[in-house]
Amino acid sequence: MDNLLEEYKAYYALRAERFANNPNYSNSYKAEKDLSEAMQSCNTLDEFKERMGNKNELCAIALAKDEYIIEKQFFEKHQEKIRQSAAENILAGVDNYDNVMDLISFITETENKNSIKISMDESNRMLIEEWSSLDTIEMFENAVVPDKYKNDMLNSAKNIKEEMNERVKSLEENNDAWEPGWRLQPDVVLEYRHKRLLPYKDEHINEQLSKFKSIINR
Amino acid sequence: MPIDPSMLDPMLGTFRNMLKEVEEKNYTGEDVDKLKETMARMEQLGQENDDLNVFNGILMQENLFGKFSDYYSRILASSAKAEGESKGYDDATLLKQTIDSLKGAIAEIEKNYEKSIETAKQEAKKHKTKKGEAKKAYDNSVEVAILNDPTLIIKGIQDVIDLGEQPGMTLPKFLRLQMERGLDKAMEGSVVARNGQKYLLDFTISNPKSPYHIEVDTKKLEAFDELASKNKFNLPNLKELSFVHRDIDYKYATDIAIWEEITRRWESILSSLSFWSLSYCKFAPGILPWRPAPDPVAATIKTQKTEPGLFKQEERLFEKYFGIKFMDIFKHDTFKWAVKYNYTGFSQEYVEFLIEQVYPQCRPFNDLNKETIKQREDFYTEGKEGDPETYLINVRHKNVYDKYFGDGRYLARFGEIDTDSGNAAPWNIETFKYAH
Known about the structure:
The structure holds 2 protein chains of 2 kinds.
Chain A: H1 2-17, H2 26-40, H3 45-52, H4 55-77, H5 81-93, H6 100-123, H7 126-142, H8 147-176, H9 192-195, H10 202-215
Chain B: H1 5-24, H2 30-48, H3 52-61, H4 64-87, H5 91-125, H6 141-147, H7 151-164, H8 171-180, H9 183-188, H10 190-206, H11 211-230, H12 238-278, H13 296-322, H14 333-340, H15 348-361, H16 370-381, H17 392-405, H18 409-414
């Protein structure tokens, strides 16, 4: 048993050492060090059982904390405020837990709720998908063609507008199952996390957004 | 009306099996009751809704999958804890249990590996030629076998098992040595992750959509090595690595979107000129897209009369958004890139014809002159519209494909590469004066 005690001391010391000098894992380092120190101060293995308390669980909680801090910083940097909110909510609540199973439940539930918010938020990117159709409408409405074909051109533009409205209706019906009462908010696309995906200048995005809103009556 | 069992059963099957396992082991307690309630709620929703989207939406809103997994984990954890407490500390038994579970993991990986190959073979049999033979192109069992090859993962786990079975080994020593030697990370699949990244990079380099795509995959591989070099055990933390990789994707997303949109627009502009000029050919009413029209001749005339107006709008929008005029296309990096990698679809002489003959005439209320129509017909009938080296895309792909899946594998699966891409001369960007 004496040998086992020494081997456990070496094991716990190394566990802490894994996180040394890594600024991303400072909470883990501290928690693992606490656990290791408890181990190092023991003269028997039975003693460790008492001194360990919930320190092992606190290591797992610290690891979750470190990794959600990394996630929060990442989404902050990229102005992903909806995705960031899962990490924020988890970090705000993580210290209330001293039991890993309860923490896992809390994290799963928070992530789950947020994943619905992310889907709903990203549905507001509809302008990105509709950009090409908006251009085609503009082309049909402005093309210089013989009088004989003018009505054909205008009818084509009208059909595209009707299809666009159908797609909005279908999206809202679909999303209602995930967030009752969900309505498309076209202006949300102007927020950085969505706008960065558009290969266009702000002036063009604003112009196209106005056209889109006018067609879908928003 | 309930959801069709063919869709519901695969979704709920795993959860039903987990519940069955709990019942067979006679576990009891509050978590077991809640597990049963959650399963009953999922089954109830499956019977009450006929729309899969609504069903999924409610499952997510009520967090039923999450709750089920939570109760299940609690049941297993409390069972394991109770078992451990009743027996007291027994190092040899704990070590053996750990080793046995690793052996079980290897057996499971091997079983799944064989199953994935068998599934690929069965899937291939569903696609047959008119003669009833299996279509080779659908048989990807060799690729599945290589891409999912578990040798490295199994080696990682086996190394850990070997360590645990050394004479005189104890559980704490085993756990410490695993970490010291980086075996725990190898077992997580770090080596496999690097190989996967290298595989992606090699395929990207063979036919890159843009220079940014090469940069993205190169930087991802470099990030792996950089994080590994900073780590005491020379293996990266996979969580940290995933954020670095996502950071790279974010950094390049806008540049890639601009590159792809510019490319898409000039491709469309060249296609419009090609389409408009084709509509004047004497055989146009007999070919697509005009042939199926109620009056094919009238349909070609409509194209002739309306396409220039639409083309001018297309040209205007391109300049408005990106400041690129028609003649700027050919000096643009996206165009030169497309020529280099055989993506333009058009031959050099045909693009020169579109620039010099068709473009100046593509104006509203203007028709293509007879001489140009004759030239256009010749391009079509002589097979000189297309880039004659388009097949090089497949050759480059084949070279990397065979490197990973074995010499001759591309040929066995997809057949000989068709090198007959038309009769035009190959591209030479040096002699293409509009690029300079």
